[in-house]
Amino acid sequence: MQETVNTHSQPSNPTQAHSELWNLTIRDLFFKYIRFLPLFVLCVALALFGAYAYLRYATPIYSTNATMVISSDQNTGTRNDKFDEIFGEGKKVNIQREIEVLKSKAMMARVVRKQDLQFSYAVKGKIRTINIYKHGPFLLETDQLSDSNSAFTLKIKIINEQQFRVNDGDIPIRFGETFKNVFGSFRLVRRPGTTLSKDYTVSYQPLPTAAAEFSRAIMVVPKVTGTDILSISMQNTNPNLAADVVNQLMEEYGAYTKELKNQTSDQTIAFIDNRMEVLGRELDSAQNNLLRYAQDNNLIDAEAQTAAYFENLSAADKAINEQQLQLNTAEYIEIYLRDKKNNYGPVIVPSSLGLNDPTLNELVNAYNTMQLERQQLLDGNVPAGNPAVVEANEQIEKLRVSLLENLSNIKNSMRKTISSLRQSGGEAEGQLKVMPYKLKGYLELKRQVENKQALYNVLQEKREQTAISRAANIASSQIVEKAYVSYKPIKPNRRSIQLMAILIGLAIPALFVFVSEMLNDKVTTRYDVEKITSAPILGEIGHSYADSVMLVGKTNRSMVAEQFRIIRSNLQYVVGKVDKFTLLITSSYSGEGKSFVSTNVGGVLALAGRKTIILEFDIRKPKLISGLNMAKGPGITNFLIGKAEL
After folding, report:
1. Which of 123, 129, 384, 612 is the most exposed, having the fewest neighbouring CB atoms within 10 Å of its CB?
2. Is the pLDDT of residue 2 over 60?
3. In a domain, 469, yes or no
4. What is the pLDDT of residue 88?
5. Distance between CA atoms of residues 82 and 65, nearest Å
């Protein structure tokens, strides 16, 4: 036990005194709590057993992860510096927009259809139901659904290797046999090489519901902030299902971006096909007219007679036709742009069809790109009032105005050129007036045929170029790392659950002991005395299990006897040089050890050679005499009432 503090002076170092008090408190707390060790062990064992039961029967959750790069589309063609300055932002990839597209229900619906995820298969175990995606012993084939917009569940109870029951029905059904119920007409087909359990469930979800469920489970974030690399992850109770959904999602996104690119090419090809059809009919008519004219007028070698005059006229007409084709194309584009119903309609503006103006071509490409980006936002379920859609509308309107201004300038320039060419062609035509009427008519018809043939060839060439460009389109994404199946669950975390169980197993008894100690008003430690009084402490006496009250003696070296000797030594520092002194030993109530302490303190002082008298003032229940095995005689009570003298 600790030694007595000198009572004639306070500790010179408060920090040292506080440290001693703290050490004493930790020791006392240790001895207080160590007696509850069985309770702690029991609670920790119960908590670990509960953790084991939870881990045994909890449904594990698996996670899979994949990485994909979103690439920006670099438009072909030559751009001037001013155009790049105004519209150069279109080259950058809006990662947040692409993330929303990947997480959209429309994109996930493509995955659900491709992987046939509207039907899910599960086997019933003793504790939980397990998803058996792609590992089931049978496959449900649907002939007809009563209502494809309503979800339902079929309970399959296996009878034997050939028969089963549906929804607790009484009639056995054979595998491969068509059966009908309120949900539709179905067949259950066995998969070879698989074993049957007892109870299964087959659940159906409508396409929107299934797409929404899987879409919520998908997590898409940039792998590194500020880059175009996306990390796509999914958590599910079946690792194979999670990996297949993530991989199919990346493939469907790539196909989706390629489809968007092909829309412009498809519309351009459709426009060219329409023009070629009209021009083909005109060419056939012109060729037939030329043939009939030559047959009717017996013209064989008209070119040799008028070659010199026709060369100039043909060159002028060719230039006029080229300019007229460009003018017609410019007028068609202008009519399309001025029609308000096409402001946000499908993109059908051809990027180039004989118009050799770089600025116009770049404006048309930018206009088509903005139309596709706006449609992509709407396809991704982004509201029309979203700031991204509003910004796209403003960019489209800005480009439309710029296109109309540019087209107006181009048309004015072409009209002036055509007027000049016609004037030059008129001069060459005047030279033909001296030619015979028949030859002049023949040349006119032949010139029409050649002009229309040239236009037809130009359109055919443009169509082939557009088709080649379409075939060269690639997806705007690249799969860096596919999702792989991981059979290591992420939930529940075994170590975390076990650690939590240990902490709970320690916390509950600790809280119980703490509350018990807080409600306990008994003085049990030295700290309990020191925190409520500044009185010096001479020493501490341990509990004695001996039968005798008097423990001190010349030969007794027990722990309790030594503690009384320590008190005697500390008492000498308290009384100092006082030869005769009085010690009053008292307590709050009976049974706290007054008689025991008084007897042994008196005994230890007597052993030191001091003359010691012990006075018992316990009037109600005196025990000092009986503890010393002395005969009972007159005491303090007799003295106080005058029946005894000193």
Report:
1. 384
2. no
3. yes
4. 44
5. 43
